[in-house]
From TrEMBL:
Pfam family, any one: ScsC_N
Taxonomic lineage: Bacteria, Pseudomonadati, Pseudomonadota, Gammaproteobacteria, Aeromonadales
Name of the protein this chain belongs to: DsbA family protein
Domain Thioredoxin: 40-235
Signal peptide start-end: 1-17
InterPro entries cross-referenced by the UniProt entry: DSBA-like_thioredoxin_dom (IPR001853), ScsC_N (IPR041205), Thiol:disulfide_interchange (IPR051470), Thioredoxin-like_sf (IPR036249), Thioredoxin_CS (IPR017937), Thioredoxin_domain (IPR013766)
Keywords: Redox-active center, Signal
Length: 238
């Protein structure tokens, strides 16, 4: 392989700045083909190297994006906030009341908060699944802005409803938590739009998605994996 690669280098050096002749181009293609046929592992190495570079670029871009959107992500008073008052680590959960994976993942996140009192959680609703997703998200956001202490029971009631929500299910949830007269505010619509813009910027195309430090984790991962990721982030130097 070394001799072939040297031949390629010499071929390039021999023509200087001048373009390759058709014969030289054909020979270079032949040499490259021979190299790959004799050493197919080169392709795997190249693919792995490309993947590592892509991941490094993604993490670098994600870090810059998090810093540029830090206030919106972590400090917006319009976003529901649970967990520690002064957290060592704040998670950001992108979720949807009509998403079956969110319904499965939400209890795991709540268990994580209970078991890790140093954690905080910010909830960002992404109503990707229809009008009832949007309506339920806006009602939950409105209740948060009016009575933060009453948010969690309604949130868990809506998340606990199997299948897609409809108007009747939403009314039932409001009645069960003592908020039959609640109406969605204009501010809640603005917050939803901000969340959707954030999703576009971060490339979130589905729910749930969880931001842990500088990792954006898609999907409903198992609790053990979630705990491991969070503990590693809590133990990382600040």
């Amino acid at each position: 392989m070394k001799s072939i690669l040297m031949a390629l280098l010499l071929a390039g050096a021999g023509v200087g700045a001048a373009p390759f002749t058709p014969e030289q181009e054909a020979r270079i293609r032949e040499l490259v083909r021979e190299t790959l046929v004799q050493n197919p592992a080169i392709l795997d190495e190249a693919a792995e190297s490309w993947q590592r570079q892509q991941e490094a670029d993604y993490q670098s871009n994600l870090g810059r994006l998090i810093e540029s959107q830090r206030k919106v992500l972590f400090e917006s008073p319009a976003s529901p906030r649970l967990g520690a008052r002064d957290p060592a680590l704040t998670l950001v959960l992108f979720t949807d009341y009509n998403c079956p994976y969110c319904k499965r993942f939400d209890p795991e996140v709540m268990k994580l908060l209970e078991r890790n009192p140093r954690l905080g959680l910010v909830i960002k609703f992404l109503p990707f699944k229809g009008e009832s997703s949007n309506n339920s998200a806006r009602l939950a956001l409105t209740l948060w802005s009016q009575k933060p202490e009453a948010f969690l029971p309604l949130h868990q009631t809506l998340m606990g409803k199997r299948g897609m929500l409809d108007d009747s299910a939403i009314r039932t949830a409001l009645k069960a938590t003592g908020h039959e007269s609640l109406r969605a505010s204009d501010e809640s619509a603005r917050e939803v739009n901000i969340n959707l813009q954030l999703a576009r910027e971060f490339g979130v195309q589905g729910t749930p998605a969880l931001l842990v430090g500088r990792q954006l984790i898609p999907g409903a991962i198992p609790y053990e994996q979630l705990e491991q990721i969070v503990q590693a982030e809590l133990g990382a130097p600040r």
